[in-house]
Amino acid sequence: MLAYDYPLLNLFWTMLLFFLWIAWLVILFRVFGDIFRNKEMGGWTKALWVLFVIFAPFLGVFVYIIVHGRDMTQRDVQQMTEQRRAMD
């Protein structure tokens, strides 16, 4: 409740919440993008992950990152390597 006693702290609190909301949206869209980019998953598995992320967003995103975090990184590195090779 300290943030509401001082207007400047209220501004900082609002900025922090806004930043965290934007960061959450970035993570959410990266997870959705990775679900559809993953070629190893079948259609039903992708559908179940999408439903899990939609109906339990925080839990779904965190579980997906725990389960497929390394695979996400490998796909990102592979995509960057292919883009660099195409550019060269």
Q: Helix segment count?
A: 4
Strand content: under 5%
Q: Characterize the main sheet.
A: none
SSE string, helix = H, strand = E? HHHH
Number of E-state strands: 0
Q: Give the radius of gyration.
A: 18 Å
Note poorly predicted spans: none
Q: Kindly state the mean pLDDT as a whole number? A: 89
Through-space gap between termini: 56 Å
User: What is the structural class?
Assistant: mainly alpha
Q: What is the helix content?
A: over 70%
- Label the overall shape: flat
Structure characterization notes:
The chain has 88 residues and is an all-alpha fold. 90% of the residues lie in helices and 0% in strands. It contains 4 helices and no strands. The protein starts with a helix and ends with a helix.
